[in-house]
Amino acid sequence: MFNSNHLESPIQRICHPLLSAKKVELLVKRDDLLHPTIQGNKWRKLKHNLLELKRRKNDALLTFGGPFSNHVYATAMASKLFNIPAHIIVRGPQLDLQNPTLRLAKACGVHLHAVTRLEYRQRYDNKYLEDLANQYPNTYIVPEGGSNQFALQGCQELAQSLPESDYVCCAVGSGGTLAGLLNGIPKSTQLLGFCVLKGAEYLQAEVLKLNPTAATCNNWQLLHDFHDGGYGKFGAPLWDFCQMMKRTHNLPLEPIYTGKMMFGLWQLIEKGYFPANSKIVAIHTGGLQGLDGLRYRKLI
Among 60, 264, 278, 295, which residue's Cβ finds the most Cβ atoms within 10 Å? Predict the structure, then answer.
């Protein structure tokens, strides 16, 4: 039986000479600690989708993801935990079952379907989704990354759980977390989205598509200068920063999402971007399982 109740994740205060010198307060919302097995924003996004699946009395779940995807990992965990059969269309063309993410998914009993990159590109195409719905009857389809209207509800709840602040910062991949946060933060709070993909100017339109009210809000912006080379790419300074935060502040980071956001935020603080006495809340959206994938590929 699916039970969506869980305790709220903790807030961690970061104390550092830089923050004192710039007179800013930095809090981290530790959503990586939100759920024992389904971390961070992936739980926020899946929660209301799973409730909708239950409401519709669907028998199974189908979604999409890359071979090292946090969404694939979280969906597999949810499938096992709540006994919901799941099909995952994986960007292939082949499955490497030594990959820790796919190995976990397989261990959870998820049905993995590798497709060519060409077919994978059709994942938002209505005709393709219609064919999948016919192929897998009474199956609830969740988009790649989990970003849809039900995901926004979970991210709005995240926003409503945050302490009062001048700025809220989050990493942006598909735009769903930011679009949902916008519904829950006060108009007086600035929302900064750190894009982890290179050339992701299209995300502005994605956010507006997911949340049309964003068009009338002037308290959010996407920052495109902190992708560190593109999705999944990172240099030594970023990885050194992640290791420093773990060592000095006991804050574990991966260099794909939250690490990029925190490193970008740190650089903005160094440059004096934030007025004195600003209170900043940075959201740790989880994804720490990605470290296993980086180790597997010998990238760290």
Answer: 264
Q: Report the 10 Å Cβ neighbour count for 137.
A: 9
69 is catalytic: yes
CB atoms within 10 A of CB 100: 17
Q: What domains lie within the chain, and their CATH numbers?
A: 11-39+148-296 (3.40.50.1100), 41-146 (3.40.50.1100)
Q: Which of 9, 69, 147, 165 is catalytic?
A: 69
The token duo for 277 is: 């006495």
Q: What is the pLDDT of residues 35-55, one digit of tens each?
A: 888 878 999 999 999 999 999
CA distance 166 to 190: 6
Q: Which amino acid is at 45?
A: K
Q: Could you give the angle at which helices 40-55 and 70-81 cross, rounded to 10 degrees?
A: 50
Entry pTM: 0.93
Q: Is 194 helix (H, G, I), strand (E, B) or coil?
A: strand
